TrEMBL record:
The lineage of its organism: Eukaryota, Sar, Stramenopiles, Ochrophyta, Bacillariophyta. InterPro entries: Acyl_CoA_acyltransferase, Hist_AcTrfase_B-typ_cat-su. One of its GO terms (cellular component) is chromosome, telomeric region. GO terms for molecular function: histone acetyltransferase activity. It comes from Attheya septentrionalis. GO terms for biological process: subtelomeric heterochromatin formation. Coiled coil: none annotated. This is Histone acetyltransferase.
Length: 439
């Protein structure tokens, strides 16, 4: 059968091709378009909160990227709020909002913020964008933004055919989300000076750990973290994570105590002794490692550094600089910083590697007439320091991968696997520090 005949027969079973441009022109001034735009504007207006949920912890500014090359970037104001899960309005609002998590978290489950299972309780940390009340002509721009949220969520790479939302249009999820919000505190005719739209959230679970060492107390667990697509890679996740540490350290204690609620419901009765994360994704692990590193580094410039002087008071070139943390010191540092012992080790290794790289940067800036000799000396120094650092990190990797490495009967295979684990760790550390791997 010739190609022409195949195309002719196939064409009989297909609908006729219609000019897309012709359709657009015919609908350009139609009443249907006007009606749809009116509905879209109404839905976008309904997506705004007249006031944020929970207690406003603080405000900050970020530059928001335009949706396309024709829309310029703009500076926007964002607010961080901590909401109590026992509040009925908060629980109802979050019940609708958390449906968006299914687009971004493969193992996402619905959370009942009113539950006190295991003697714990829930809170939600929200980030809202703060909008000045604007004229009706400006609302049309919000239609594009809302459409972009839907499209980016629908085509996000994390949604697979096996996803529970693979056969559900994203508009259905958002429409359900909006219906729930309209029952709450939305008002498109609000007299407030500002309106608020959701940027992202974290769910926080507080529970008591009576056998926690070195002292019992409350553990704060981060369970879910979601940032909507238009605001991703803008530092909002870092701001939320940092706010969790500030909550645990008591930075916002006065604001939280001002609420007319029970102390235990606000997490103020028991001291928070540790912050951990439930099944973090790889990107969240990197964020956590970076923040813990910055926490440790920042403390070194205070009067009460987290690291004992025996680990930080020596010169990088000294043999003792790359001494591994003892188990006792690791536990004590973790208790003071409210981070897990494993995170203490990672933050410490990042701190030592950062010091190594800074030392090499300073040596590379030195003036010398013999550049070849200087390069050779720098390379020799780097090899010496990296060898000491490598031995320090491998000691930790050998402990945490003891069972896996113990399965190798041949020492060469065992050493090769340990080298592989180290290279993966080293490359990740270099990336976290924002540096290129030195050859």
């Amino acid at each position: 059968m010739h190609t022409e005949e195949i195309l002719e027969r196939a064409g009989r079973a297909l609908p006729p091709v219609v000019s897309v441009q012709q359709c657009k022109n015919s609908l350009a001034d139609s009443p249907l378009k006007t009606m749809n735009m009116r509905k879209a504007r109404t839905r976008v207006e309904d997506d705004y909160l007249s006031k944020p949920f929970g207690t406003v912890l603080h405000e900050y500014k970020r530059v928001v990227r335009g949706s396309d090359e024709n829309e310029p970037n703009e500076e926007a104001t964002f607010v961080l709020c901590l909401a109590d899960g026992k509040d009925e309005l908060v629980a109802e609002y979050h019940g609708n909002v958390q449906k968006l998590a299914l687009f971004f978290i493969e193992t996402a489950d619905n959370v009942d913020l009113t539950s006190n299972e295991g003697g714990g309780y829930w809170k939600a940390l929200y980030v809202f964008r703060k909008h000045a009340t604007e004229a009706d002509d400006d609302v049309d721009a919000r239609v594009k933004t809302r459409r972009r949220v839907v499209e980016e969520a629908a085509f996000d790479q994390r949604i697979t055919r096996s996803s529970p939302l693979s056969n559900i249009a994203p508009e259905v999820i958002l429409e359900s989300h909006c219906r729930g919000k309209r029952k709450l505190s939305f008002s498109k005719n609000s007299k407030e000076d500002f309106q608020y739209s959701l940027v992202g959230y974290m769910t926080l679970f507080y529970f008591h750990a009576p056998f926690k060492k070195p002292k019992p107390g409350m553990v704060l667990r981060i369970c879910q973290a979601v940032i909507l697509p238009p605001y991703q890679r803008a530092g909002h996740g870092k701001s939320m994570f940092q706010a969790v540490y500030d909550i645990a350290s008591g930075t916002y204690e006065s604001k939280l105590r001002s609420l007319n609620q029970h102390k235990k419901s606000n997490g103020m009765q028991d001291e928070i002794v540790e912050i951990n994360v439930e099944d973090p994704a790889p990107a969240f692990v990197c964020l956590r490692d970076r923040i813990d590193f910055e926490l440790l580094k920042k403390s070194m410039r205070t009067k009460t550094p987290l690291l004992p002087s025996c680990y930080s008071g020596t010169d990088v070139m000294h043999q003792s600089f790359f001494t591994p943390l003892s188990e006792t010191d690791t536990v004590e540092i973790g208790a003071r910083g409210r981070i897990t012992p494993r995170q203490v080790q990672i933050a410490f290794e990042l701190l030592q590697l950062d010091a190594l790289e800074q030392e090499m940067d300073q040596r590379g800036k030195g003036d010398t007439q013999d550049k070849a000799s200087c390069a050779s000396s720098l390379q020799k120094t780097r090899k010496t320091l990296e060898k000491r650092y490598r031995l320090m990190v491998k000691k930790r990797l050998l402990k945490i991968h003891r069972e896996e490495l113990g399965g190798y009967s041949d020492n060469k295979e065992k050493q090769a696997k340990l080298n592989e684990l180290y290279e993966e760790t080293f490359e990740r550390y270099i990336t976290l520090l924002g540096r290129n791997k030195k050859q």
